[in-house]
Write a structure and sequence with these properties.
Number of strands: 0
Distance between the termini: 190 Å
Strand content: under 5%
Helix content: over 70%
Length: 181
């Protein structure tokens, strides 16, 4: 008979050349697998350390630099904003005090003008009252004179109507004495 095909080339391969079980777990191949694992890890390490990691470190450094610059700029802007707020508050307080001062000055000026207008109006009223009193006195005097004349004429006519003789001196004296009181 020919050579038996049942003979196994190794523990991991059967007679037909197929792997028995999981080839990764075969002890005969373990050294080979460890060698290629180490070689692969060294190549990956070299690629990462020479190419990828420097680029990542550069990106991280740029990002940190940008963040630091932004923080510095924000601090500067914050201090400028606080300074602007202080200036605004000071300007607002100054404007309020100026407005208050102007208001007080306007009130005082208006008070002076009002007092001057009141004094002028009082003077004009006094003049008009004096003129009115003179006019009233003239009207009263004229009215009294007119009343006296009417009273004398009426008394004369009454005396004549009663049939007596009207003496002008007597009628004038009688009317004058009655008008005086």
């Amino acid at each position: 008979m020919a050579a038996s095909t049942d003979q196994v080339a190794s523990k991991c391969i059967d007679g037909y050349g197929s792997a028995i079980g999981m080839p990764q777990l075969c002890g005969d191949w373990m050294a080979n697998q460890i060698f290629w694992l180490v070689v692969t890890l060294v190549i990956i390490f070299l690629i990462l350390s020479r190419i990828a990691l420097p680029r990542i470190a550069e990106v991280l450094a740029d990002r940190q630099s940008t963040i630091t610059n932004y923080l510095t700029a924000s601090e500067e802007l914050k201090s400028k904003a606080e300074e602007a707020e202080r200036a605004y508050t000071q300007a607002l307080n100054d404007a309020r005090s100026e407005a208050s001062r102007l208001l007080d000055a306007s009130k005082a000026e208006m008070k002076k003008e009002l007092q001057a207008a009141i004094n002028k109006a009082d003077a004009e009223i006094s003049v008009k009252v004096g003129e009115s009193e003179k006019s009233i006195a003239e009207i009263r005097n004229n009215a009294m004179a007119s009343i006296e004349k009417v009273a004398k004429d009426t008394a004369k006519e009454i005396v004549v109507a009663l049939g007596a003789k009207a003496d002008a001196k007597t009628i004038n004296a009688a009317v004058s004495s009655k008008m005086k009181g």
